[in-house]
Structure formats: C-alpha cells, structure tokens
Amino acid sequence: MFKDRKVIVVMPAYNAASTLQKTYDEVMAQEVVDRVIVVDDASSDETLEVARSLPNTAVYLHERNRGYGGNQKSCYRLALEEGADIVIMVHPDYQYTPKLIPAMAALIGNDLYSCALGSRILGGSAVAGGMPRWRFVSNRFLTLTENLLLGSKLSEFHTGYRAFSKNLLERLSLEALSDDFVFDNQMLAQILWTGETIAEVSCPTRYDDDASSINFWRSVKYGFGCLRTGLTYRLAHSGLIRSPLFPEEARQQAS
Fold it and tell me: Mind listing the domains of the chain with CATH numbers?
C-alpha cells in the first residue's frame, strides 16, 4: 500500500520468460506493491509457466495474440476489478527499472498527479544507455511534433513505464484506442484531452539483448500512427472533426 491506497503493478507480457522472474523480484522488493498482474498475450515461450510460479500474482492468458494495446486494455481492466487505487505498468523485459515504483506511486498517491511517466530522455543519457541513435532521433522528432499539436511539454511520449490513478483510468475511453503499439501514444493524448497534467521522472535507459523492441518497419508504422493521433487531436480540439478517441463529453468535464 501507499498510505491507504492499493498499488497494483501490471505486466503486459509477450515472450518474456527469460526476464520475467528478475523483473518480478525487483518489483516485489519495492515495499509499496500489493499485487502483480501478468497478462500473457499468447506467448510462444515459457512466459505462462514462469508467471504461474510467481507468488502474489494474478496470471491471465490471451488464447490468441491481441497486440500490445489489447494486452494493456486487459491489464487495466483487471487491475480495476481487483480494487487498485494506483496502477503501474512495468514491462517484464526489465527495460525499465522497477526501483522507480515508489516515486511514481508517491506522485499519484499524494494526489499531485493522475498520471506519471518514467522518461528516458530527462536524464540526458538515453544514447549512452544503449538507445539506438535512429530511435533517439525519431523519438525527439515525434515528441517535438506532438508537443506542438497537443499543446503539451513532455520530454517523451514513447516510454512504456507509466503510473495511473484509479479515477483517471475509469474516465478514459480505452476501448476506442488501437490494439497495436500506437495505443501508448493515443492513451497519453486522451489523458491530455481530459485536461490532466502528466508528470515525468527521470528513468535510466537499458537496451540489452533480452530487452524487447519493435523492429524498424513496425517503428515506422508506429511513427505515422503517432502523427495521425496528433493531427486528429488538433482537428478535434479545433472543432473541425469528431473522433471516438477524443469524446467531447470528456473535454467538457475537464473544462
């Protein structure tokens, strides 16, 4: 618990058998964590077996692969069903250190923010930490463009290390979002649409051989999806179009 609030860590897992145990051990070493939820997105390795061996862990299996976004939708729904007040997503490939969980839980649990991100860019050592240079350049370009389109000032939109309050998750229209990787980007845009401020904490970058990463061509598809999301947001904000990603009632509640 953080104060009197239940903290649940969700792990959207896909072929993470080699790193899941190590990630879990470090997650549970953070004393604020009450429960872990692992959703296996039809992995072809032993992810499910490893997950089922972990204590204090709820394990769910997608019989067919639903995609990274589809996996997250299950994660957040299940966390809310288990009574989470604070939900923190940690990738089970150990790319993001679980040691930041207490800090992120504190930002949410002290009612300072409803969403907090672990940013690989804030510390200024992303490339030195192993981020491929082409990925760093595309990250900076997309983040600059999206900040302009969405009127935000985030250091990056593309981190997978995120914490949310229960109230925020209940307000979002997650089912309207993509089941693919662009889900991450659409979710942040939807949060900004509601008028919420997104907090960021500096997160060390880690790109080892066992850390998952989408390939170049899927990254290109993701990049175009991010640009489409930003343009849709700007057009909807200007009243030129309506989009299920950005429902007008959520904007009215924010104002």
Answer: 7-254 (3.90.550.10)
pLDDT at 186: 98
Measured torsion, CA atoms of residues 71, 72, 74, 76, in degrees rounded to the nearest 10: 170
Does the structure show a pLDDT above 70 at 213?
A: no
Mean pLDDT of the chain: 94
Rounded CA-CA distance 48/175 in Å is 25
What are the φ/ψ torsions at residue 140 (nearest 5 degrees)? -70, -40
Q: What are the helix (H) ranges across the chain?
A: 20-28, 47-52, 67-81, 101-109, 133-150, 166-171, 183-193, 216-237, 248-254
193-208 burial: b if 16+ Cβ within 10 Å, else e? bbebebbbbebbbbee
Residue type, 165: S
Q: What is the pLDDT of residue 131?
A: 85
Distance CA 185, CA 146 (A): 10
**pLDDT tens, 172-192?**
999 999 999 999 999 999 999
Amino acid at the residue 139: N
Asked if residues 185 and 143 have their Cβ atoms less than 8 Å apart, the reply is no
User: Which of 117-121, 139-143, 201-205, 210-214 has the least mean pLDDT?
Assistant: 210-214
With a cut of 80, say whether residue 255 has pLDDT above it.
no
Answer whether 30's CB lies under 8 Å from 101's CB: yes
Tell me the Ramachandran region of residue 56: left when phi exceeds 0, alpha when psi lies from -120 to 50, beta otherwise. left
Task: Classify strands 86-89 and 162-165 as parallel, antiparallel or unpaired.
Answer: antiparallel
**H helices, E strands: number in the chain:** 9, 7
